[in-house]
Design brief:
There is one protein chain. The chain is α+β, with helices and mostly antiparallel strands. It has a single domain, classed as Rossmann fold, CATH 3.40.50.300. A 4-stranded antiparallel beta sheet has the order 2-1-3-4, covered by helices on one side. The protein starts with 6 loop residues before the first strand and ends with a helix. The C terminus is likely disordered.
């Protein structure tokens, strides 16, 4: 039996007027893995990460951390917490997209 992924995003959907940014996206990250999101401009990479850290709300889908469903707080709460973690961590010189994922670990 495989362990639950550290982070699982399942069925994530988000659209903007006239644009489907994320259409039922699934992403699983297991402990110790490193991932990169690649795609053309407008493919929904940034939107997916903004859903993960609370800047946007997904219209549908779920996010699980260590197998447990979680509700992502709105961005101001997350960003204050993230800023404090960054100040007190070894991640302070990494690009912001790497920091967001590192803060989840």
């Amino acid at each position: 039996m495989n362990p639950a992924p550290f982070l699982a995003m399942r069925g994530i959907t988000k659209s903007f007027p006239g644009v489907m940014a994320n259409d039922h996206i699934d992403l699983e990250i297991y402990s110790g893995e490193v991932h990169a999101l690649l795609g053309e401009n407008g493919a929904g990479k940034s939107t997916l990460m903004k859903i993960l850290y609370g800047f946007y709300r997904a219209y549908s889908g779920e996010i699980r951390l260590n197998g447990q469903p979680m509700e992502i707080p709105r961005a101001p709460v997350v960003m204050r917490s993230a800023q404090e973690k960054i100040r007190n961590s070894k991640f302070e010189n990494l690009p912001c997209c790497v920091m967001r994922l590192a803060l989840c670990a």
